[in-house]
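Re-run with default settings, no changes from the original entry. Doing this only to confirm the output is reproducible before filing.
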Amino acid sequence: MKKIVIVGAVGGGATVAGQIRFYDQDAKISVFDRDSTMSYAACGTPYAIGGVIEETQSLLMADPQQFEEKRNIDVYLEHEVLEINRTEKSVLVKNLKTGEVFHEAYDFLILSPGGSAIVPAIDGLDSTNHFVLRSFGDMEGIISYIEKAKPSSCVVSGAGFIGIEMAENLMNLGLKVQMVHKSSHVMSILDPEFSDRVLTELKNNGVVVYTDSVITKTDKKELHLSTGQKLQADFIIMSVGIKPNTQLAEKASLPIGETGGIITNEFMQTADSSIYALGDASENTDFVTGGAKRVPLASPAHRQAFIVAKHLTGNSIPKAGLLGTSIVKVFTLDVAMTGLNERSLLENGVLYETVLHKGNSNAGYYPDHSEITLKVHYSPETRKILGAQCIGSKGVDKRIDVLATAMFAGLTIEDLQALELCYAPPYSSPKDPINMVGYKAIRK
């Protein structure tokens, strides 16, 4: 009987525990997490803060009792794993409620420690109400503060996924929202013209945005920017980035890669074959370049959990590289992406050409349609698709999902014209925007 210890009980950790139990009814599985909740839908927390999701408890997918009763898995919340003894194959665990410290033996150890929100060192920050959003408890703290303090204004520091979602949801609550972003473009993962569309959408909906700026000092409700400007706000949401929680792995001398994640092989094993790593803290490979890549999103973590479970139970399925397929809602716009953007292509020295198509999400004569812009990068030599972005108010996810599938399957840019995609006036056109990209590539 295998003894499996898992560090982390959120997306990756809870999923890998359930997957292992599905394939192995006999393994002894123990899960440890220093938080007080497990298996919650972290991606839903901004929408719970904004009141779109009315019942916060709906984000909780499971609890330790359910895991024990339904799956025979032991989950220990408010327990922190302090050290890994690779020689003895055991971990040192501290019960954060009682202070008790004990050793737990393992045959296989799975690290799914996630990441922590980065909080820059800012002079005077302790005098200002400030929050991060990285856990269920963080969400509850923000909701409680808004309900009790009844603030009227907020500054969101950082215009990535979380920052954008928080700006929209705080606006929904009627707050004055200002956004500070260190780059010249919000959502820096996008090509510039798509980033500009997002910036315009933010401004059109009342968000005041300061680019090329960082907060350098705070004095209670007064915030000083690197540009010399001063802002007034009741509180700050810090969303400047995520740092992978690799301290435990580093103490155990497991190699850390160039992206800051724990290096893993095609089966998510670390340098120690009895220790796996998955989720936000693991380093993987890029599907296009084969180089190091770390994608702190839910979908890769769930896929990696499956790969670990299959490998542990004797039916190995190697991982493919990561595309980083993702989407975000920005008021009336949706913006999605997969693969490499222009900056990444240039930085990696990859030759590319681009097809840009502007068209309708579905039949223009149908009342409910939206203009979408689709941009696809491809190799002029192999004709393989290298990356894509799409923006609009309808049908954005569908197009990027098709392109991510095409990339995974190795289709060429010209192959897109031949895809037989579903059509009816409410949904598409006889020649879908995806098809049009293929036709345009042939003309080029």
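The first strand starts at residue 3 and ends at 7. The radius of gyration is 23 Å.
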